[in-house]
Amino acid sequence: MSEVFTVAVLVAVVASAIRLAVPLLLASLGETFGQRSGVLNLGVDGIMLLGAFTGYYAVLKTGNVWVGLLAGLVIGLFLGLASAVIAVTLKAEQGISGIGIYLFGLGMSDLLFQKLVGTPIPIDTFPQVDVPILSSIPYIGEMFFQHSMVIYLAFAAVPLAMFVINRTTFGMNIRAVGEYPEAADTLGVSVAGVRYATQLIGGSLAGGAGAVLAISLGIFQQNLTNGAGFIAIALVYFGAWRPMGVMAGALLFGFINALVLELKTLEIIPRDLSNLAAMAPAIITILVLAFAAGRFKAPAALTKPFTRGK
Amino acid sequence: MKNVTTKMAILFAVVALIAAACSSSDDSGSDDGGFRVAVVAPSASNDLAFTQSIVDALNKLESDGVVSEVAVTDGTFVVDDAAVAIRDYASDGYDLVIAHGSQYGGPLQEIAPDFPETSFAWGTSADTFGLDNVYSYEAASDEGGRVMGIMAAALSQTNTVGIVGPIEVGDAKLYVDGFKAGVLVQNPSADVPVNYIDSFSDVALASEAASSLIGAGADVLSGTAQMVVGAVGVAKTDGVLWFGTQANQTSLAPEIVVASQVYHWEGILEEMVTNVKDGKLGGELYVINFANDGLVIEYNDGFDLPDDVRQLGDDAVARFKSEG
Hints:
The complex is a heterodimer. Chain A has 13 helices and 2 strands; from the N terminus they run ααααβαβαααααααα. By secondary structure, chain A is mainly alpha-helical.
């Protein structure tokens, strides 16, 4: 048991948690924008899958990981646009249309992979970037400052998202449209315009999250995300629709997953309890969600299409 | 506007369903009065693992003229979807319907009695549910696991050899147990941490499990099921040796893959087809192993494996062959 409490184990768990958290963080940050404006997109996982394939394929063809990331962001942008057309312009029921987008992404990413690639071919991964000076700090450096550039960028996106949502006119419009779209409309804010913008941001970040996942792993496989997009949606609720809360949720989810893996490697979790332990991240997420449900309110107009005069 | 919305929603749903269907179903022939086989499998046909092993075998039977048609529905990681596909193939009159996944046992037990004239096969499992129209099949993957475990122990400098497992069932468990036993036969003092990630499909978790094992000192790794592609990537980055199973995984990382245990189901499938043609629709268990050439160790020619280690592997295979 004493093996658990070594610094080396802690370092490994934290570093692993950060890697596991990043795709969730990016996707849930994007979904936060959408939900704060009143649009729920259940298709995040499908967008992630298409972003993952597109990013993977772009790296396979160009050998450039940044082109891959860009490809994931762009395909996500297009799918965000499709989500906006369905949810905002056509005012479709958001839950159902989101499932449609998920199925589309799931099927199309696999179809494209089968037709364009076939057998999994490894690709280059994001290179590790050691932050000067900080990366050489014992233990701390290995945990926090010896990662790839996309990991630093993902965490840098959190204060940026906070700033945009809380300190800019655009952010104020997002919040207004998500809480009381009729009032925002009366004040001259384009409800549809704001919601389109948040769907583009959300789709782009979801596509980017998928690309980050595939390029970090250096491979693509059918259903690569394994439901990460749905976890990302749950993390938005978990984080009470706030970027910092979302980041905390993603890190907690990653940390529990990493800790369970480490405990299994050290054979501290008995084999009989292995599958029970694997459920720990989901169980803890549900418990925190239940706790958070009574304390924080969802945007009042969430999932409600807006029609002027109604 | 409502009308347009409805039409758009229907159009989108249709496109989504077509994409989903196209990605997972490959009906490569037609009913010409020959022998028609269908397989339903959990992952992609080219996963370099479990599903690919059965699809490759069926394609070989088709090219050899043993069967006239092979239909594949892959990617059915949702068991309910697999159940629908199994029932559809049986309804369509396929002569042999293969449920290629331990997780498909429950639905198959319900479906098979509804089609007493259709033969079903289910693996990996030893259970035919006492039904006369269900064959079961499994791989003695512990044999190959043991052979490669022996070689892994001989190659390890740190005396730590790690294994990434999916869920502790079926041939995955057999392989992991066999591999661990092989390591300990060669080096009783070796440390053999095993990390079951409790998923057949979580590539990210498998890669983190590999990182965790390497952090624990492992300089040789192995793993089973389709999610190990992520673990192979981590092994490659860290310069850790890898032993594969189910299909030849050399192409994933030619620098570090030492050898792979490859499943060859075609022998037992041919026997099943012969039986079905003779009117015997099920009730038997088939096992592939070294003795019947259902298991083969394929070495990576690009890896400089020391002769004495190769000899250890060959000797172990020879023992299994002689023991039958």
